[in-house]
Write a structure and sequence with these properties.
Largest sheet: 2 strands, antiparallel
Radius of gyration: 22 Å
Number of strands: 2
Shape: elongated
Helix content: 40-55%
Strand content: 5-15%
Number of helices: 2
Strand order of the largest sheet: 1-2
Length: 63
């Protein structure tokens, strides 16, 4: 029972990381890479034009 905490008369277990938080950086990178590749295969991936990139760069963090 070392992992059980008592607070206000109730017992709680420590929270565990779930989903992407529980994965190693390599696993997250691999999954993200698969998603990016797939979107480009389907033609739904976005590629910036130089004009779009310049506009986004000029906006910066002003929102």
């Amino acid at each position: 029972m070392a992992d059980v905490q008592v607070h206000d008369g109730t017992q709680t277990t420590p929270k565990r990381k779930r989903g992407f938080a529980a994965m190693s950086p390599e696993q997250r990178r691999r999954i993200a890479s698969m998603g990016g590749r797939r979107s480009h295969e389907l033609g739904t991936g976005h590629e910036w034009t130089s004009e779009e990139a310049a506009k986004a760069g000029s906006i910066g963090g002003r929102r």
